[in-house]
Design brief:
The complex is a heterodimer. Chain A is α/β, with parallel strands linked by helices. Chain A has eight helices and nine strands. Chain A has two domains: 1-71 and 157-237, P-loop containing nucleotide triphosphate hydrolases (Rossmann fold, 3-Layer(aba) Sandwich), CATH 3.40.50; 83-150, no CATH class. In chain A, the strands form two sheets. Chain A has a six-stranded mixed sheet with strand order 5-6-7-3-8-9, sandwiched between helices. In chain A, strands 2-1-4 form a three-stranded antiparallel sheet, with helices on one face. Chain B is mostly helical. Chain B has one domain (2-122, 130-276): ABC transporter involved in vitamin B12 uptake, BtuC. In chain B, 85% of the residues lie in helices and 0% in strands. Chain B has 13 helices and no strands. The longest helix of chain B is centred in the last third of the chain and has 32 residues, at 245-276. Classes of the chains: A alpha/beta, B mainly alpha. Chains A and B meet through helix 2 and helix 4 of A and helix 8, helix 9 and helix 12 of B.
Chain lengths: 237, 277
Amino acid sequence: MILIEGKDITLGYEGQGIISGLSFSVEDGDYLCIVGENGSGKSTFVKTVLGLVEPLKGTISYRGGLKKNEIGYLPQQSGIQRDFPSSVLEVVLSGCLNRRKRLFGYTADEKKKALLELERLGMNRERNASFQELSGGQQQRVLLARALMATEKLIFLDEPVTGLDPKTSSELYEIVDELNRGGITIMMVTHDIHPALNDARTILHLSQGRYFFGSKEEYFRSDLGRMFMKEAGHDHH
Amino acid sequence: MIITEILSYPFLVRALLVGILVSVSASLLGVSLVLRRFSMIGDGLSHVGFGALGVAAFLSLPPMAVTVPVVIAAAVVLLHLSSRRKGGGDSAIALISSSALAIGVIAVSAAGVNTDLNAFLFGSILSVSRSDAVVSLLISAVTLFSYSVFYHQIYATTFDPAFATATGIKTERYTALLSLLTALVIVVGMRILGSLLISSLIIFPSAVAMKLGKSYLSVSLIAAAESLIAFVLGFVSSYVFSLPTGASIVLVHLIIFALSVCLRHSIIVFRSHREMI
């Protein structure tokens, strides 16, 4: 079942196209890695999929019961303030704001779900801790829990390991992979080749004016894929 | 008792009531404004308010009718400038506020000796008239009501605008609401603290609360409580020692802030001490 489908899309800013003729689809249960150099249109792609900007041309459709504001989004860390006073539970609960029915406060069910998500990510003990006092890796787990509050279908991570040390990064990748094996569809923008190598099933590579979309195996045989691997120091030929 | 003595004068009761409500409203808005790095907007708006008051006095127009729309327009412009990271929001605010001050001072002096420049700059809470009180109460009630209804949306918009927008929260709408409420509270608060001191009502409570609170809810509650305590203490001490009301309130805020810094420090020292043992 396809959850998101983009057809013949032109991405760009203020009428300036970066990539045109882009078609892709995200299957239910897929693990899609979006890679590409800076300025290749990755962040515009993120905004377009989230519905924050319209594509210059083409259409993006959401299917399989997925609504536009039902994407569990993990934004780049740079957007969040470091000194913001907030408890972990407050952060996680804010994930389900988009489908709130009540005017004041959260329902008991929503609170229960927040605690469950924290437990799933191993952050249950820190639920009343101050978000700003957590380590970078713990903060990312909390933000993942918040994303899971927004949806159980699809999580969209934007450069999730920026600023994390290698050990914490691989722990985070492990969590993401586990979520994927549990049936959650993953889309991840990254400049890091490792999740693409290990866990991803599908690759979208954006490059100046061209792109690759296909399975990981096809990608490694493609020109773009071989170039990217070579630059990342994984050239075995 | 001093309190019963104060409560026996209707005009003091009116001033106390208006002051408490405006202080609490300003403190709640302040938490969000300070966290979004918008705290200087309060300062800029109060200077714009002063300019508008001066012009109103010069043209013999009703002060509120001129100040409210001008300050709301300024709030929209300033928030827009500050949201654009590259736009140099700081310098824009400084330019606008000093120009507004200049226009105000010239207008006031041209209006003649009848206008009390001192009251414009430093406030005069005791001159709060019955109609002023009604307007202030209304505006505070609207602020407190919308803040509590949209509390979670304002939290999400402040904490992480990118996520909030992506999950379908209309962040621009809540930013606009925030600036509208700020403009209204500043216009009302200027009568009490004057345009030079009003921004303390916005900044001090959240500065204190952020030293002490860990969650957003506790920060909001501490800010509201601090603003209430500081206003009442400042008000009473200005009555007892015959000091200017606005300045006394700001000084009480400063003292509480200093205490909270000390408290925060001793908590940190105590914690590290305990960890060492």
